[in-house]
Write a sequence for this structure.
């Protein structure tokens, strides 16, 4: 169902131009600090036994944000490679902190089996301003294509080209928050002069697979691991989650590459986009972070058990 939008920027029925985008940018403010919350964790991990630090670019938005990857030190070409991305949408906190928690507490358990690359925070400006978009009012998670103009996405794409053999597995860690309905969907409707459903925030954890490569059993393994930590999203009366039919409990599928989503970036054989719901008052931030870790471990454990490596 579509809803009228009354977003305070722009004129209904007219797409935003540069003036409206500048108004939107002027309304954003720093609410937390990437340089104290996130960067020291990345640097500490790079000084340990598991990871080395690779800097793949920087963003210059009034201040300079370095873009870092954590890569396992003992890289072997005969091992399958795993990519974990967090903070593609910077406001989705457990995507960032969950990736860091996995790197800190659990990655060592898997380094003998897999090469690991972890990008903890794709969008540091979005992290600081608790935002879905970048300063150009572009959504990084709809911008993974050449010429998108979204630096967060383009720099990550350029970095990953150094891995010619690609990635066998990709976990893209996200959240679905109440602010999706209260702020980000209304802003999108205003920016693009469209009408969209603003009331699509499900309670619980779910995953988004690739409709072109759904990997039913892999997704189920992720869900089964996460249900030990936090509740799984149940379908609505129409059998849907966020307007999309479920394929099994807690799982929907999107055409990842067609939509230029991060989850389709690598064309990995096994890929999942996690969605944590952090706004349930009974769910803690720690639980959200642990759910992200459980998702990664559940997927990797499934591959170790059931697939010849």
């Amino acid at each position: 169902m579509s809803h009228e939008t009354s977003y305070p920027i722009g004129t209904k029925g007219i797409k935003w131009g540069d003036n409206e985008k500048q108004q939107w940018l002027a309304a954003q403010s720093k609410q937390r600090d990437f340089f104290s919350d996130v960067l020291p964790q990345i640097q500490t991990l790079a000084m340990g036994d598991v990871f080395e630090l690779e800097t793949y670019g920087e963003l210059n938005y009034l201040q300079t944000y370095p873009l870092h990857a954590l890569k396992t030190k003992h890289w072997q070409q005969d091992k399958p490679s795993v990519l974990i991305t967090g903070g593609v949408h910077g406001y989705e906190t457990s995507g960032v902190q969950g990736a860091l928690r996995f790197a800190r507490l659990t990655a060592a358990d898997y380094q003998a089996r897999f090469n690991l690359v972890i990008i903890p925070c794709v969008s540091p400006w979005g992290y600081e301003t608790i935002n879905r978009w970048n300063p150009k009012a572009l959504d990084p998670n709809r911008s993974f294509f050449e010429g998108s103009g979204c630096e967060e996405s383009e720099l990550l794409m350029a970095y990953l080209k150094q891995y010619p053999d690609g990635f066998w597995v990709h976990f893209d860690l996200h959240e679905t928050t109440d602010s999706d309905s209260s702020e980000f969907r209304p802003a999108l409707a205003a920016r693009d002069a469209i009408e969209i459903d603003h009331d699509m925030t499900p309670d619980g954890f779910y995953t988004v697979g690739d409709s072109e490569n759904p990997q039913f059993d892999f997704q189920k393994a992720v869900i089964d691991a996460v249900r030990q930590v936090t509740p799984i999203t149940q379908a609505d009366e129409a059998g849907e989650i966020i307007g999309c039919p479920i394929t099994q409990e807690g799982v929907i599928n999107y055409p990842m590459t067609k939509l230029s989503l991060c989850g389709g970036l690598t064309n990995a054989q096994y890929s999942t986009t996690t969605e944590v719901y952090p706004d349930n008052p009974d769910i803690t931030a720690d639980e959200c972070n642990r759910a992200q870790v459980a998702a990664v471990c559940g997927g990797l454990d499934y591959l170790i058990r059931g697939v010849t490596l």
